[in-house]
Amino acid sequence: MPVRSTLLAAICFFGAANAPGISHAAEDLSLREEAAFRAAAAQVSPSVVAIETVGGLDTLGELLVGTGPTGGLVVSDDGYIISSTFNFAHKPASIIVSLNDGRRAPAKLVARDEVRKLVLLKIDAQKLPVAQTAPESDIAVGIWSIALGRAFEPEKPNVSVGIISAVNRIWGKAIQTDAKISPANYGGPLVDIRGRVLGVLVPLSPNEKEDQSGVEWYDSGIGFAVPMAHIERILPRLKKGEDLKTGLIGVSFRGKNVYADPPIIARARANSPAYLAGLRKGDRIRAVEGKPVDLQVQVMEAIQSRYAGDKLRVSIARGPDGKETFDRELPLVDHLDPYKRPFLGLLAERSSPAANEGKVVVRYVYEDSPAALKGIKVGDVVQAINGAAIKDRDALRLAVAESEAGKPLKLELQRAGEKVQVELEAAPQPETVPAKLPQAAGEPAAGDDGAEPKGVSVKFAEHKNECKLYVPETYSEKHPHGLVLLLHPEGGFQDAELAALVKQWMPHCRRDGLMLLVPSAAGEEGKWAAADLEFIGKVIDRVAEGYAVDPGRVVAHGVEEGSLVALRTAAQFPERIRAAAVVNSPSLAAPIEEDPAHSIAYYVATVSDFQAKTRIVAGIELLRKQFLPVTVRELPPQANYLDAEQLSELVRWIDTLDRI
Amino acid sequence: MTNADGTFRRAVLFAACFLFATGGALEAAPLREVIRGAQPKIVKIQGAGGYRGLEAYQSGFLFSADGYILTVMSYVLDTDYITVTLDNGRKFEEAKLVASDPRLELAVLKIDGSELPHFDLAAATTADSGTRVLAFSNMFGVAVGDEEASVLHGVVSVVTKLNARRGAFATPYDGPAYIVDAMTNNPGAAGGALVDYRGNLLGMLGKELRHTQSNIWLNFAIPTSELRETAEAIRTGKYVRRAPEERVAKPDQPQTLDLLGIVLVPDVLERTPPFIDAVVPGSSAAMSDVRPDDQILFINNRITQSCAAVRNELDFIHRVDPVKATLLRGQELIEVTLRAPLRSSTSAAAAEKTP
């Protein structure tokens, strides 16, 4: 603002003082401005270079890439030149820079700023002219801005004149101008009427990050430049050859409208900077770098204007009334690794008298697991991990899940009155199912499996769906039971078919403490619809209100089309569902991102002659890439469900879902 | 001075500036006069077209008091019924196409009139980068009847040759052009006038074209100095129709890589960079210390982006002429001058006697 006012004032006074008549004064202003445009361009012109490239791609996506000269700006007298990544998106074999004085030199690409789409080039030269930078405080909407390039002739810069249309655009990364910006001047400077550099011209787009995005807006009256003052700040990092990348903290927010919704964390991704700093679901970001934020967009802007490697100080409010507040400094990272759930090789007792007191008693040790290799034995009591006492098995499970990847864990055990220290390194999650498991202590022994199972109807007035819950006669409130949601294929279960299935499951339910929940689709002819998911969510909650449900063993189990509902249910209710077990599923959904608090495991049984097998194999690959455990079973041709032996294996698999 | 003082002073300054800068009588006056002076000289032309996305209209301007009009040669004029409408709405339904020039792609029309306002081609001036300009045209055909032509403002971006010597787009005109930073080259704008802020004619708006090298759409005008002679010759009846100017002719006996002793890498891609695979011992290249793995960047200062480009450039150099090659070796630029041998046993063609 000050610059503009002084400049205008100067022009006005000059005009007024010398003008014999009004129209002459105005003509004078127009022509003086014209002279000022030229003078400004001439002043910066020596620092504007032409860049020619050889080799590379012809097209980028749909865009035909030009081969003509492009622009760049000298940023230090020893041969550093800044340009736009767009000019190098076609990956040229060689880069030649033509200087204002006619000299030519080959250039090396030193580093890229992937956030602001800049590249730093280096040529072997000294004493190059460096243009003056306009102070950031002088950049204001409405001031003249002159865009320079060298796309038509390496000897002559091309000029386009406009005003600054906006500042802090594209997540605070750029200033905006209505001067014509296109491949004719990308990489060149945007200068003010005094010939000082305001910024460097790049194509930018608010939502896309590819080198060519934003190019579709060329010459449209909307063009962008990265402020020169910012470039000067990052120059030392670029000169060192450091590529600057988008920084991530690893949170997603509740609500989709980034311009209207407050920054309340929906998920802090496991092992992300936010997670490691202790940020959790429900936390609200109150301020970034001390500046209060009300909307998600403000947080995103703060992150987008920084780079991976930078730090971001956030102030957090926690709790229902937001009274608990704290500050954290988050390091921004350039990528987030998928979460690898650590596995020690233990099952702990669930509801034995000792377990009910909070003792973590080892019930089973996996063969060849880290625990087995370090000699942990059935009956050992885990008392502390990494020096911290353990409250109960859930606490141990979470402590292991949250442990830092690659760092050994120290367990303190009690064995027959003796203290034993064990140090072990976690292994990947197992996909095989133990051939035999001891019965979970404290759970009822197998009862008479000849009895007819009793079903309880669960209904909601607002849903047409039917639902039956089968509870084994051996159920007791003292022993929380696992819950298996059995989701039918298209057409639903026939009465006889369902009776046979329940009969097949019941002995296992009795032995392992499971309940069977069988909801049916609301649609005609037993067709599942998206609305059925809401019902399933409610039913799970209703059952948990009325019965003691073990949250570690809630499984969505689908047959054929019911499998898709099972996978969707698991994705929709990550806090309630611990596993998806599917039989003859037409496909596998996208992997669910798990986190330390909420595990997910997959069981996939498919007939050997299944026509959608390639799709299933691809889906399994995808799950494994995300380090999610998938147990795979092949069924004999034409089998439409598991036989007795396979079912007993599935039940054993469910029994291991709370493994540590 | 207190803060309040400062604010006050700035406010006064602003008020003063505002008056000067935007007061209707102030800035707009001369510009309005310039525009008002130019508008009667601009005409709207209707002709053939009007289907398949081809507009049936374009722009033109008067350059004589008795009704000679300069415009671009296009399919719009390819009819016996060309209508010219002046800015006052006066309509001439049988404008005559006097002649056209294929190289400049210009056409001269004649309407029956006298004492018509017009641009004086002889008085036209020139401009350079940064010159403020106004473009008058019937873009998108929005001006009808007595409506005036549309006016765009901008600056001359650069004065440059319209396209490369042997561009991919076969535009016959490749002389100097004003590249403008306003969107002057819209449908129907071709044939309009580019003037400076004093009202002087600078040139005629060209057709919609893309830049050969960067593929961006061009906004340009052909300078009056390029058009003047032909337009006047047509007006005075002295015009002799010429064929499009001959492009730079290829010599009968051009240079070849064989003659220079260079073997390039196999040309497998659209843009295989021209790396040298081998150098023939005893050849000009070998004697100039050209080495395998050097990359040929320029031939006679023209950039060679690919193996094909190198061969193409050599095609335009006569065998007797030296070839200046700029090579990239590692991060070093090396210039060499290569000559084909006067007699060569390696090539039958090269064995002929040179003049």
Task: Describe the protein in words.
The complex is a heterodimer of chains A (660) and B (355). The longest helix of chain A is centred in the N-terminal third of the chain and has 23 residues. In chain A, strand 29, helix 10 and strand 30 form a beta-alpha-beta unit. Chain A is α+β, with helices and mostly antiparallel strands and 660 residues long. Chain A has 14 helices and 34 strands. In chain A, the strands form 7 sheets. An 8-stranded mixed β-sheet of chain A has the order 27-28-30-29-31-32-33-34, with helices on both faces. Chain A has a 6-stranded antiparallel barrel with strand order 1-4-5-8-7-6. Chain A has a 6-stranded antiparallel beta barrel with strand order 9-10-11-14-13-12. The N terminus of chain A is likely disordered. In chain A, 24% of the residues lie in helices and 29% in strands. Chain A is elongated and about 105 Å long. The termini of chain B are far apart. With 355 residues, chain B is an alpha+beta fold. In chain B, the strands form 5 sheets. A 6-stranded antiparallel β-barrel of chain B has the order 1-2-3-6-5-4. In chain B, strands 7-8-9-14-11-10 form a 6-stranded antiparallel barrel. A 4-stranded antiparallel β-sheet of chain B has the order 18-17-19-20, covered by helices on one side. Helix content of chain B is 17%, strand content 29%. In chain B, a hairpin with a 5-residue loop joins strand 2 and strand 3. The N terminus and C terminus of chain B are likely disordered.
